[in-house]
Write a structure and sequence with these properties.
There is one protein chain. The chain has three domains: about 80 residues; about 110 residues, 2-Layer Sandwich (Beta-Lactamase); about 325 residues, Rossmann fold (3-Layer(aba) Sandwich). The chain is of the alpha/beta class. The chain contains 18 helices and 20 strands. Helix 1 links the parallel strand 4 and strand 5.
C-alpha cells in the first residue's frame, strides 16, 4: 500500500533523479508515451511519471503489474507532470535541434512525435483558454537549452515557469504546426529564418479555434506569435455596457449607427478589443439589414452577417485582393459593411468606396487617439484617403479610440490605507490633478483572493476581468472645417472645449481616454496605476496640460 500522495512535477527541474526510462522494457505503445513514462530509480525501484488523468488509470495499473515482477514500487509511486515535461521525456534523444523544422517529412514520420507535439500544443491552448488568453508567444532562443512560451492574458505578457520548454522541442512544435496543421501559409515549409504567416484551424477542448500565425527571425532564434480566435457560432456576444461603454457613449453609438450612411472607425493598439466592439455593434443593427464583413481573416462569427475572408500577400506583390470584393459588394445590395482593418491603400480604398456610395462603413485602425485616426493614419501616404474626402459632410460620422484596462477584483481590492506601499506624494498628486478623494481610490491586492487567484499567474492576483475605456468624437461641421484646413492643434483645443464634466462624473464628451479612465478610478473599479501603465504617468499628463494652457494663452 502506497501512502505517499503523488508528487507534482511542474518543471523538468522538479523531476526525481532516475537511471533510465522503461518504455521499451514494458513495450509501451509510442502513442501513450507522452501520457505515461515508467522510470527506474536507484535500488531497483520504479515509479510512474504521468499526466493527472492517468493517476491510477487502467494503463498505469497494468504497468505496475508488469514492472513489479522485476522492480520494487517506489514511494511516491506517481509523479504527476505537466504536458511540457511529459513531451520532453518521450522525445528526449530524438533529432538534433540543428536539423529541426526544415521539412514536413522530418516530423510526419513519427506518429509518437506528432502526438506528443500536438498534445503539448493542446495543453498550451487549454491554459490560454481557461485564463482568457488572446495570444501565444513562442520565444525560441537557440543560445539556450530551454525557451519560453508566453501568454497574453488581461493585456499582459505572462511567462509561466511551467511552460519553459526545451528549445529543440519548441522549435519542433512550431515546425509541426506550420508544416502539418497550417492553411494559407506564405511558404510551404516552416523556415525559422524568414518572416512567415499562416492560419491554423483546430477543434480543441470543445471549441472551434482559428490561430493567426506570424513569425520572424530574432537575434538569438525565432519568435512566433499566434492570435487565438474563437470561431463558435454560439459564443456569447457582449453588449456595449458589458464591454464597459458608459451611458452617454452608448447614446453616441446609437445615433451614429442609426444614420443612413457614412463611416465609423474604431482605433486602438493591438489587443485593445476593437474587433470585439465591431462584432457587438454589428449585432445591434436590425436583422432586416443586409450586413457584410470583409476580413483578413474572419476573426469572430457574427450572427446574421455574411462574412468574407481575403488574403494579403506578405510581399504585397500581385493584384489587389480587395478589387473583386469591391466590385461584387455593390451588386449584393448591402446596408452595412465592416472592413476588418484599414492597414493599406487597398483596404482604405474599399472603406472609402463603401462610405462614398452612401452605405454604412465600419472599420478599425491602429492609431494613438481618436483625432489621430484621421490626422496620422487615414490621410497618411500609407493609407491615402484625401483630406478633402474625409472632410466631406456625411463621409465620416464617428471616431472612437478604445483600450482595455484590468478591473480590480471586487472581493479583495484595497483602499489607500490598506495599500501601505502607496506613497503620500502619489495620493496627493491624484487628488490635485483629478479632484478626486483618496477615500474613493482602490488598489489591486497583490495577494489576491479565492475569487481572483489563478494557478501559475501570480502577476494577475487582484485582477478580475477587463473593461473598455474609450474616447468618442461625433464629427460636426466645425471639426470638418478644421480637418480640411489641417489645423490640428486648434481641432484638439475645440474638442477639449466641449468637455463640461468633472473627472468623477460619467459624461465623456470632450474627454481624452485617460480622463474617461479616471471616472472608473473614482468608482474604485480600476487601480490608478493601471491608467499610468497604459497611457503614461500622471506627471506627464500634468506637464502636457500645462503646455496646452500656455499655448491657449499665446493664441
Amino acid at each position: 500500500m502506497h501512502q505517499v500522495a503523488p508528487s507534482v512535477v511542474e518543471h523538468s527541474d522538479d523531476m526525481p533523479a532516475f537511471l533510465r526510462k522503461l518504455y521499451d522494457e514494458v513495450n509501451l505503445q509510442p502513442s501513450l508515451r507522452h501520457l505515461v513514462c515508467p522510470i527506474e530509480l536507484e535500488n531497483s525501484r520504479f515509479a510512474l511519471v504521468v499526466t493527472e488523468e492517468h493517476v491510477r488509470s487502467d494503463v498505469a495499473t497494468e504497468l505496475i503489474k508488469a514492472l513489479s515482477f522485476k522492480y520494487t514500487a517506489a514511494d511516491p509511486l506517481y509523479y504527476v507532470a505537466s504536458t511540457v515535461v511529459m513531451v520532453e521525456l518521450c522525445r528526449d534523444g530524438e533529432t538534433e535541434p540543428q536539423q529541426r523544422g526544415r521539412s514536413k517529412s522530418a516530423l510526419i514520420g513519427s506518429r509518437a512525435g506528432e502526438s506528443s507535439l500536438w498534445s503539448q500544443f493542446e495543453n498550451m491552448v487549454r491554459f490560454a483558454s481557461v485564463n482568457d488568453g488572446s495570444d501565444l508567444h513562442f520565444e525560441i532562443d537557440r543560445s539556450k537549452p530551454r525557451s519560453v512560451v508566453g501568454f497574453r492574458i488581461d493585456g499582459k505578457l505572462i511567462r509561466p515557469r511551467a511552460f519553459e520548454v526545451k528549445t529543440s522541442d519548441l522549435l519542433d512544435t512550431a515546425a509541426y504546426l506550420y508544416n502539418v496543421k497550417s492553411q494559407s501559409g506564405s511558404e510551404n515549409t516552416f523556415n525559422e529564418n524568414k518572416p512567415q504567416q499562416c492560419q491554423i484551424k483546430a477543434a480543441i477542448h470543445g471549441s472551434n479555434l482559428l490561430f493567426r500565425w506570424a513569425s520572424n527571425k530574432s537575434a538569438s532564434g525565432t519568435k512566433v506569435v499566434m492570435r487565438m480566435l474563437h470561431q463558435d457560432e454560439e459564443q456569447t456576444i457582449r453588449t456595449l455596457p458589458e464591454l464597459g461603454y458608459l451611458p452617454d457613449q452608448i447614446g453616441i453609438w446609437d445615433r451614429s449607427i442609426g444614420r443612413l450612411g457614412g463611416g465609423i472607425v474604431i482605433a486602438g493598439v493591438v489587443g485593445s478589443g476593437k474587433s470585439t466592439t465591431g462584432q457587438t455593434v454589428m449585432t445591434m443593427l436590425p436583422s432586416t439589414m443586409a450586413k457584410y464583413t470583409v476580413e483578413d481573416p474572419v476573426e469572430y462569427i457574427i450572427p446574421g452577417t455574411t462574412q468574407f475572408s481575403v488574403s494579403r500577400s506578405m510581399t504585397d506583390a500581385g493584384s489587389d485582393p480587395f478589387i473583386a470584393v469591391k466590385r461584387q459588394l455593390k451588386r449584393m445590395d448591402p446596408d452595412v459593411v465592416l472592413i476588418g482593418e484599414i492597414r493599406d491603400r487597398e483596404s482604405a480604398g474599399l472603406f472609402r468606396d463603401i462610405a462614398e456610395s452612401g452605405h454604412r462603413a465600419f472599420s478599425t485602425v491602429h492609431a494613438p487617439s481618436a483625432i489621430d485616426t484621421i490626422t496620422m493614419r487615414l490621410t497618411s501616404d500609407e493609407l491615402g484617403i484625401p483630406i478633402d474626402v474625409i472632410a466631406t459632410p456625411g463621409f465620416m460620422n464617428l471616431l472612437v479610440y478604445q483600450a482595455l484596462l484590468p478591473l480590480n477584483c471586487p472581493h479583495c481590492k484595497l483602499d489607500h490605507i490598506a495599500a501601505t506601499w502607496i506613497e503620500e506624494d502619489y495620493l496627493a498628486r491624484v487628488e490635485k490633478l483629478f479632484d478626486l478623494s483618496r477615500r474613493d481610490l482602490r488598489f489591486a491586492n497583490p495577494e489576491g483572493c479565492e475569487h481572483c487567484r489563478r494557478e501559475g499567474l501570480p502577476e494577475l492576483h487582484g485582477v478580475k476581468g477587463r473593461t473598455v475605456v474609450a474616447e468618442m468624437i461625433e464629427l460636426d461641421e466645425q471639426m470638418l472645417h478644421l480637418f480640411r484646413e489641417r489645423k490640428n492643434l486648434e481641432l484638439k483645443h475645440y474638442v477639449r472645449s466641449l468637455n463640461r464634466a468633472k473627472f468623477y462624473e460619467p459624461q465623456t464628451v470632450g474627454k481624452r481616454v485617460l480622463e474617461v479612465s479616471m471616472y472608473k478610478v473614482s468608482q474604485g473599479l480600476i487601480d490608478p496605476r493601471e491608467v499610468e501603465y497604459k497611457f503614461g504617468t500622471f506627471e506627464q499628463y500634468e506637464i502636457q496640460n500645462n503646455a496646452e494652457r500656455q499655448l491657449r494663452r499665446v493664441a
